[in-house]
Specification:
With about 280 residues, this protein is α/β, with parallel strands linked by helices. It has ten helices and ten strands. The protein has a single domain, classed as Alpha-Beta Barrel (TIM Barrel). About 40% of the residues lie in helices and about 15% in strands. The strands form two sheets. The chain has an eight-stranded parallel sheet. It has a two-stranded antiparallel sheet with strand order 1-2. The radius of gyration is 18 Å and the shape is globular. The structure holds NADPH dihydro-nicotinamide-adenine-dinucleotide phosphate. NADPH dihydro-nicotinamide-adenine-dinucleotide phosphate (NDP) binds next to helix 9.
Length: about 280
């Protein structure tokens, strides 16, 4: 473990910090401040997307931190309307330009959008970007087992990561098992359930007993499950609090009690039908 926390091995031989900083719903003009604060705190991974419209703010935050570009693991994502052979490369170039970089550490297909039936050919383009060295690692987001099986069968390339909604109320056991069998890292989005899981009594009780915050308990649960985790906050004290999770460990009974909270309940859209362009 480095000062920036543990790093996990990806199936392509590279590594990803297990704890990163998510910037969804951070306004473009607030993004550089939040990212710079996260990097000062010790985070070394930032999760953005073309759809968040704040990639340029991410670049500015990195520049302001004084860190070298190669010291920060940057993930961005291809938006739904840019899927397909013709659009993907151009969308990738636009993301690079906004990020002020000639590569990304991890490039993801944001949603499968099965109704457009373009995700398999889009995945082929990501494989090319990986071969060219412009996307150091490639993966997907919000893919279900049938979508994963299809791209693996058709391309022979297993995504390094599947970034999915995952928190104590939606623990995704089946998908996590599939990931483990195929060496796909599970990355948890909305890891705090957008704050909603923090009021669960089980979590509050563990937090009180350990003199930690509910958010720290939930993030620690993710770490111990082996998930990559990318909490978002614009509040400096919470950005710091969410980073202080490497100096304690939940007991088996605490993990089991939190495991009971799984209700299979999403806060976000269903990937089988979500098709916003
Ligand atoms: P999170 O589960 O990270 O929750 C964020 C919310 O929790 C914010 O309202 C924040 O408030 C609050 N919060 C953060 N830390 C604490 C704390 N310590 N105590 C109390 N409240 C806290 O939800 P997100 O949906 O933002 O998910 C995280 C990241 O996942 C995104 O930023 C994005 O990078 C990624 N994501 C990916 C998706 C995908 O489709 N691939 C979809 C959605 C998210 P405040 O900011 O006011 O402090």
């Amino acid at each position: 473990m480095s000062d920036a926390g543990p790093r996990l091995k990806l199936n392509d031989g590279r590594e990803i910090p297990q704890l990163g900083f998510g910037v969804f719903q951070i306004r473009p003009e607030e993004t550089a401040d939040a990212v710079a604060h996260a990097l000062d705190t010790g985070y070394r991974a930032i999760d953005t997307a073309a759809a968040y419209r704040n990639e340029a703010g991410v670049a500015e935050g990195i520049a302001r931190s004084g860190l070298a570009r190669e010291d920060v693991f940057v993930t961005t994502k291809l938006w739904n309307s840019d899927q397909g052979r013709d659009h993907t490369r151009r969308a990738f170039e636009r993301s690079l330009s906004r990020l002020g970089s000639d590569y990304v550490d991890l490039y993801l297909i944001h949603w499968p959008v099965p109704s457009r039936d373009l995700y398999a050919e889009t995945w082929e383009v990501l494989c090319e970007l990986h071969e060219d060295g412009q996307a150091h690692s490639i993966g997907v987001s919000n893919f279900q087992i049938d979508h994963l099986e299809r791209i693996i069968d058709e391309s022979g390339v297993v995504p390094a990561v599947n970034q999915i909604e995952l928190h104590p109320r939606l623990a995704q056991p089946e998908l996590r098992r599939f990931h483990d069998e195929h060496e796909i890292l599970t990355e948890a989005w909305s890891p705090l359930g957008q704050g909603a899981t923090l009021q669960e009594k089980v979590i509050e009780d563990i937090a009180t007993a350990r003199e930690r915050s509910p958010a720290q308990i939930v993030l620690r649960w993710h770490l111990q499950l082996g998930n990559v985790v990318i909490p978002k906050s614009v509040t400096p004290s919470r950005i710091e609090e969410n980073f202080r999770i490497f100096d304690f460990e939940l007991e088996e009974e605490e993990m089991a009690a939190m495991g009971e909270l799984d209700e299979g309940r999403r806060t976000g859209p269903d990937p089988a039908t979500f098709a916003v362009a």
